[in-house]
Amino acid sequence: MVTEAEQADGSAEDWADVSPEAARRLVRAAVEAFAERGYHATTTRDIAGRAGMSPAALYIHYRTKEELLFRISGIGHEKALRIMEEAAGADGSPAERLAAAVRAFACWHARHHTTARVIQYELQALSEEHYAHVAGLRRRTDRSLRGILQDGADAGEFTVGDVPGTTLAVLSLCVDVARWFSAEGARTPEEVGELYAGLVLRMVGARR
């Protein structure tokens, strides 16, 4: 069953590909628990209880709490990467592609703020192997955005003296949306996306 909180957060659609249903319930429960209490303060009993299952049932689907976090992190980062790569590969000028990338990336972090808080701020809890996998997805996201900024700088559309540093600044700006966004706040996810797209274009001195 999809809760009202999941509908507001947009998180239900994040896990549509997770099966069977019991595994999907555990993922939803873990996201909620990790976001509320933090990874280290959350127990497998907490997660199972939120999912309406016994602690033993959790281990049928996930061997450890860390494996569950990795599943969440992998899916979330793959979705974020797909957003960025689609914008980077779209038609249009560098300014148009940058605006589209930032708009979509910031909007996603707002609409899916609970999930995004977990995947962005609990990375250090992953095992070395799992962290390396997620870090690879993050580097690909970085490269996609950096390519747009470099295209704009090369074309004379952007005034960017430090493309890698600007890339980091833009990504950090968008990711931080997950920390403060509230569904009860004054702005919708779409409005946040539009605001941030305009801010970033001004940041790089875009000539449109």
Radius of gyration: 18 Å
pLDDT below 50 for ≥5 consecutive residues: which ranges? 1-10
End-to-end span in angstroms?
Answer: 47 Å
What is the overall silhouette? Answer: elongated
Count of DSSP strands: 0
Beta-strand fraction estimate: under 5%
What string, H for helix and E for strand, traces the elements in order? HHHHHHHHHHH
What integer is the average pLDDT?
89
Helix percent band = over 70%
- Main sheet properties: none
Q: Count of DSSP helices?
A: 11
Name the structural class: mainly alpha
What does this structure look like?
It comes from Streptomyces chrestomyceticus. This is TetR/AcrR family transcriptional regulator. Keywords: DNA-binding. By secondary structure, this protein is mostly helical. It is built from eleven helices and no strands. Helix 2 packs across helix 3. The longest helix has 27 residues. It starts with a helix and ends in a 5-residue tail after the last helix.
Quick overview of this protein structure:
By secondary structure, this protein is mostly helical.
List the helices and strands and how they pair.
Elements: H1 4-9, H2 21-37, H3 44-50, H4 55-61, H5 65-88, H6 94-111, H7 113-121, H8 128-154, H9 163-175, H10 177-180, H11 189-203
Helix pairs in contact: 2-3, 2-5, 2-7, 3-4, 5-6, 5-7, 5-8, 6-7, 6-8, 6-9, 6-11, 8-9
